Amino acid sequence: MNPEILWKYFPHLSDRQREQFIQLSVLFTEINAQVNLVSRKDMEGFYERHVLHSLAIAKYTSFVPGTRIMDLGTGGGFPGIPMAIMFPEVEFVLVDSIRKKVIAAQQIADNLGLTNIQFSWGRAEDVAGSYDFVVSRAVAPLSTLITWIEKKVNRKDKNPITNGLITLKGGDLTDEINSAVRPTTVVQLNQWFEETFFESKALLHTAL
Q1: What CATH number is given for 4-207 in this structure?
Q2: pTM of the predicted model, to two decimals?
Q3: Residue 56 burial (CB < 10 Å; 0-12/13-18/19+)?
């Protein structure tokens, strides 16, 4: 696991951010051995397949300080934890229905010293408050995600892009996008990242 792939695409990270990204792999490896958040085989590509993949959102847009973002179905903390490192002045609430994953992700965030993250165990519909954006990574079909979170999204636009849902997905998304019945921008990740892993990966931004 080599974090230099992050420096390649995000050369202006602060020393503090670099330290946190390096420590992230150490913490995740330790906790993953106990909880099995991702496949052990997948850990070899940790920075590329999990951290850099999560940070595709940071290539797509930036967020103004004070923006509130829900990470729905965070699992082991993706994309929420990498984004919280990238945007320390943005507020994140990481949500998952599996309690042991929420506990594991919170342990990681606490050890990284991230003060801009909160955690919630349960369903999106049960999480209190409203959010400027909801992000997720391969959690559910687009139309299902919209049903879960559309009442949670704050319509007051203050960021460079329209408030809504940002998802990271792969494969043929044509039917999924058509069934969403909402304006959705599709960005292929290989326009930013040259690694083979990203050839079939896309970012979807659905305005709500």
Answers
A1: 3.40.50.150
A2: 0.95
A3: buried
